[in-house]
Amino acid sequence: MLSMKSRNEVIEETIIKTNYHKLNKTEKGKVLDLLVDAVSLDRKSVVKKIKLSGQEKGPKYRAKKYGVLVKKALEHLWELFDYQNSSSLKENVLANILTIQKELNLDNDITNKLKEISPKTIDNLLKDVRKNKRHRFKYQYIKNEKNLQNQVPIKSFDELNRDKPGYLQIDTVEHGGASASGHYGYTLSITDCFSQWHENYCVLGRGQDGIFKGLKICLNELPFLALGAHPDNGTEILNWQIFRYMKAHNIEYTRSKPNKKNHNCLVEQKNFTNVRKVIGYQRYDTDSEINLINELYRNELRLWQNFFVPHTKLISKIRIDGHVKRQYAKPKTAAQYLLESEFVNSKSKEQLQYLADNLNPFELKKIINKKIDDLIKIYRKKNNSEMVDMMKKLRPTSVSFLRGKKTTISVS
Predict the structure, then answer these.
(1) CA of 64: how far to CAs of 41, 61, 198, 362, 392, in Å?
(2) How far apart are CA 22 and CA 166, in angstroms?
(3) Cα dihedral across residues 120, 124, 126, 127: positive or negative
(4) H, E, C per residue of the chain
(5) Distances from the Cα of 131 to the Cαs of 126, 128, 149, in angstroms?
């Protein structure tokens, strides 16, 4: 039997002769088989001795080419070019490298590295910064809401209950005009899937407390019991506060699939007819405007939309030779649908019938137009301008390159 010293020598000689560490997995296995037979040890002991022999090569670590200064310069350029992706940022850097070197006061070494850096390396260097920047999506999930999304099931439009009143679609409409900065009004829009009964409430800002307050006001004034709520994925409605309220009141809480507006189509189409068509596309960001809009929403406009605006339901849809033939029912108002429903209690029907018999559409329309005119006057006075077109869509102003006074930022 070989001595311990002889075993170690045999293993070291074999490693050197066979160039063991450059072999592939199969070839290494064959060498290990030979060593097991030669030194009369088990396989794990031989592997351990190879590692302890000093011949095992450790992992190679390549020195970092792009240091802190290059990373800092990239962070500033990424912000300057409006948070572009790495490929676009790379092209802008190459096209404006002389201007960048002068404005950021860069030395030649950093400038050359910015020329050579690849888009993949840019992604790696900006990885930590991008986590703290909400630049990609207008509406983005909050990390704390991820667990909530798992608890709120997704339902498509076909899966929603439209056979009886109480199952609601919920959405918000923003009134920011041509700018998304600062605080401005949001309309909470609620539509019943069965009857098309609609409720609105306007709040200043997109905070959860304001939306929750408006939601409770709308739900309490419904002429039927709320059985389900189906918002989109915006966190102003999809949050723990509203989730707990729905659970406490036994209201089914579901959500639509992200980026699928058709899953909330009933309330989405009301965003124009019941909101935009009434108060337009202007920016409302003062208490006087919000209060006047709510006076309109919660009184005359609410009655007008639910008692004097008929809705047509689709009965059937048949495809004939490449064409779709649709059959519609007789148009009815939301109040008529509720009066004919067996799921609405007698007390609510009496109140609805009383309103239907006593409301005057001419007087309602006169008051609605008067309040809209008052809203226009407040808006004109706020902006000191008589040129106001309520139905004109306002486009955000474009971002110009390097707008404003130039400033030198040193990264050295």
Answers:
(1) 43, 9, 61, 77, 55
(2) 72
(3) positive
(4) CCCHHHHHHHHHHHHHHHCHHHCCHHHHHHHHHHHHHHHCCCHHHHHHHHHHCCCCCCCCCCCCCCCHHHHHHHHHHHHHCCCCCHHHHHHHHHHCHHHHHHHCCCCHHHHHHHHHCCHHHHHHHCHHHHHCCCCCCCCCCCHHHHHHHHHCCECCHHHCCCCCCCEEEEEEEEEECCCCCCCCEEEEEEEECCCCCEEEEEEECCCHHHHHHHHHHHHHCCCCCCCEEECCCCCCCCCHHHHHHHHHCCCEECECCCCCHHHHHHHHHHHHHHHHHHHCCCECCCHHHHHHHHHHHHHHHHHHHHHCCCECCEEEEEEECCEEEEEECCCECHHHHHHHCCCCCHHHHHHHHHHHHHCCHHHHHHHHHHHHHHHHHHHHHHHCCCCCCCCCCCCCCCCCCCCCCCCCCCCC
(5) 9, 6, 20
Q: Spell out the per-residue pLDDT of the chain, length 412, in tens.
A: 455 557 788 888 888 888 887 888 888 888 888 888 888 888 888 888 887 765 445 555 667 788 889 989 998 888 887 778 888 888 888 888 898 888 889 999 999 999 999 989 998 898 888 876 654 544 444 444 557 878 888 888 878 888 899 999 999 999 988 888 888 999 999 999 999 999 999 999 888 889 999 999 999 999 999 999 999 888 888 888 999 999 999 999 999 888 777 788 889 888 888 999 899 899 999 999 999 999 999 999 999 999 998 888 888 888 888 888 888 888 889 999 999 999 999 999 999 999 999 989 889 989 999 999 999 999 988 888 776 676 677 665 544 444 444 444 444 3
User: How is residue 146 written in tokens?
Assistant: 């991820």
* Paired strand residues for 187: 173, 202
What is the token pair recorded at 52?
Answer: 């302890």
Task: Tell me the whole-structure pTM to 2 decimals.
Answer: 0.60
